[in-house]
Design goal:
Blueprint lengths: L8 H8 L15 E3 L5 E3 L6 E2 L5 E2 L23 E2 L7 E4 L10 H14 L4 E7 L7 H4 L3 E5 L9 H15 L3 E5 L5 H12 L4 E8 L2 E6 L4 E6 L3 E4 L11 E2 L2 E2 L33 E5 L6 H11 L2 E4 L1 H5 L20 E5 L5 H6 L5 E6 L5 H5 L2 E4 L2 H23 L1
Parallel strand pairs: 5-14, 6-7, 6-9, 7-8, 8-15, 9-13, 10-13, 16-17, 16-18, 18-19, 19-20
Antiparallel strand pairs: 1-2, 3-4, 10-11, 11-12
Helix pairs in contact: 4-5, 6-10
Bound molecules: flavin-adenine dinucleotide (FAD).
Length: 406
C-alpha cells in the first residue's frame, strides 16, 4: 500500500460538526498536557490503537502510530447501520444514474426519501440497466431493484415507464421520487405520472408536514400544494444521507415487464463539440486560472480530454479566456460531474460557482490552498508538467485502444 497520507474530507467534516453522532470518535486524543502545578501529565491509556481483532496494540517503535508531529492517515468512518427488516411502506426513488453512478441530485433525492420514510418505511431505489455504483448503502438505499435487459438501455422512456408500472403494482410505494432533471428524470417522471393518472408535484425544493413547495412561474414564484404521491424534485431538495449506512438489499420483480410499443428508435449518442456546450450544461469541465502559464498546452489538454473549457475571473480579466467561460459567483454556476481546476486558488467567489459539481480535481502548486481543500483528488505540482502528462496518458490510452481494435 502506498504510504501517501490521504486526507478524508468527510472525516474532517465530521470532526468539525459537533452535532454529528460520530463527532467524538473523530477527535484526536490528547496524550499529554500541562497540569495545574506545572507538571506534565500523560494519559497512559491513550497510547496504542485497536487492532483488527478488537484488541489494543501498542507499537513501541512508533512506526505504525506515527509521531506526534506526523499527520495520521484518516480513519475509515463506520456509520451506524439503519435497517428496516419489515417495511411498513416503501418510498420509491428512480435515480438518473448518469454515467452509471449516483449524481449529487440523486443523493439529494435519497435524502428526501429518508425524510418521507421515517423509521418504518424503506427507500426502494429502482435502477435501469448496468451500473457502476458501489455506494448505494452510504447514499441511503434500503432496497435495490435493478431492472436489466437491453430493452431498458439507451433512450427508452416508454419501456422504463412499463418497468415502473410493474414496480408500482408489486410494491405500491407511498411516494415516488424522481429528479426533475434534463438527464432523464424530468421526462420519465411526467410520462409515468400520465400513465398513473396522477398529477405530479414538479420542481419541488422543499417538503414540510404534508406539503411540498415547488418552483413555478418561470422560477420566480413558489407553489405550495398538499404532498403529492409523485414528486419530481429539484437539486438540493434535501440534505443527502450522511449519518447512517443502509442495507441496500437486492429485491426482484415477481412479474415480467410488458414490452412497450417501440414508437421511439434510439439512434445512439451524437458526438458534440465540447466547446459548443453551454457551461451550465457541461458534464466535464477543465478550468484554467492564474496558475496556467502555457495556455496553448491548456487548450491542447482540454481538447485531448474532450472537456469543456472554463476559467477563473483572473484568467478572463487577463484576456486568456472569453468572458462566457468564467466560472463563479459573477460568472456561470456549473453542475459538472467532473471539474478539473488547473492553477485556481479557490477563492470563495469561484467555489460558489462549483458548489454543485460532483467530483473536483485540483492541480496546484500550493497544497494548502482552498481549492485543494475542496477537491476530491489533488495533484500537487507545476501545471504545465501535469497537463503534458495528461495529454501523453490520453494518447497512450487511445493508441492502445486502436491497437486492440485492429
Ligand atoms: C465581486 C467579486 C466577484 C468575483 N467573482 C468571481 C467569479 O465569478 N469567478 C472567479 O473565478 N473569481 C471571481 N472573483 C475573483 C476571486 O476573488 C479571485 O480573485 C479569483 O478567483 C482568483 O483567480 P485564480 O485562482 O485563477 O488566481 P490566483 O488567486 O492568483 O491563484 C492562482 C493559483 O495558481 C497556483 N499556481 C501558480 N502557479 C502555478 C503553476 N505553475 N502550476 C500550478 N499551480 C500554480 C497558485 O498556487 C494559486 O493557488 C470575484 C471577486 C469579486 C471581488
Amino acid at each position: 500500500m502506498s504510504d501517501i497520507i490521504r486526507r478524508d474530507p468527510r472525516a474532517e467534516w465530521i470532526a468539525r460538526n459537533r452535532l454529528h453522532p460520530l463527532h467524538a470518535a473523530m477527535q484526536p486524543h490528547q496524550q499529554s498536557w500541562m497540569g495545574p502545578n506545572g507538571v506534565l501529565r500523560k494519559n497512559v491509556h491513550g497510547v496504542g490503537f485497536i487492532g483488527p481483532n478488537g484488541l489494543k496494540r501498542i507499537d513501541r517503535s512508533g512506526a505504525q502510530q506515527g509521531g506526534a508531529a506526523k499527520r495520521t492517515a484518516a480513519v475509515a468512518v463506520q456509520l451506524p447501520l439503519h435497517q428496516v427488516p419489515a417495511p411498513a411502506f416503501y418510498i420509491g426513488v428512480v435515480p438518473d444514474m448518469v454515467g452509471g453512478r449516483l449524481s449529487s441530485h440523486d443523493r439529494d433525492l435519497l435524502g428526501l426519501a429518508h425524510q418521507l420514510a421515517g423509521k418504518d418505511g424503506a427507500v426502494l431505489a429502482v435502477v435501469f440497466g448496468e451500473h457502476k455504483e458501489t455506494a448505494f448503502s452510504a447514499a441511503g438505499v434500503d432496497r435495490l431493484l435493478v431492472l436489466t435487459g437491453d430493452e431498458f438501455d439507451g433512450y427508452a422512456p416508454e419501456q422504463r415507464v412499463q418497468g415502473l408500472r410493474a414496480v408500482d403494482n408489486q410494491f405500491t410505494p407511498r411516494h415516488w421520487l424522481l429528479p426533475d432533471s434534463r438527464t432523464g428524470g424530468g421526462e420519465l417522471g411526467r410520462r409515468f405520472a400520465a400513465t398513473l393518472g396522477e398529477r405530479p408535484a414538479t420542481r419541488v425544493w422543499q417538503v414540510t408536514d404534508e406539503h411540498c413547495i415547488g418552483r413555478a412561474g418561470a422560477g420566480l414564484q413558489d407553489l405550495a400544494r398538499p404532498l403529492a404521491r409523485l414528486i419530481l424534485a429539484a437539486v438540493e431538495c434535501a440534505e443527502p444521507v450522511s449519518e447512517t449506512r443502509h442495507a441496500a438489499l437486492p429485491v426482484e420483480l415477481s412479474t415480467t415487464v410488458a414490452r412497450s410499443l417501440s414508437r421511439i428508435e434510439d439512434l445512439g449518442a451524437v458526438a458534440v463539440d465540447p466547446a459548443a456546450i453551454p457551461m451550465a450544461e457541461a458534464e466535464f469541465i477543465v478550468s484554467g486560472g492564474n496558475g496556467v502559464k502555457d495556455w496553448a498546452l491548456f487548450h491542447q489538454a482540454a481538447a485531448a480530454l474532450g472537456a469543456t473549457e472554463g476559467a477563473s475571473r483572473v484568467a478572463v480579466d487577463d484576456g486568456f479566456m472569453a468572458r462566457d467561460r468564467q466560472v463563479g459567483a459573477s460568472g456561470t454556476w456549473v453542475t459538472a460531474r467532473v471539474y478539473v481546476a488547473v492553477g485556481i486558488s479557490g477563492a470563495i467567489q469561484h467555489l460558489q460557482g462549483i458548489g454543485a459539481c460532483d467530483k473536483v480535481v485540483a492541480i496546484n502548486l500550493d497544497p494548502g490552498c482552498d481549492m485543494i481543500k475542496r477537491a476530491d483528488l489533488s495533484v500537487i505540482g507545476e501545471s504545465a508538467g501535469i497537463l503534458q502528462a495528461l495529454i501523453d496518458a490520453v494518447q497512450a490510452y487511445r493508441n492502445d485502444a486502436k491497437r486492440d481494435a485492429a
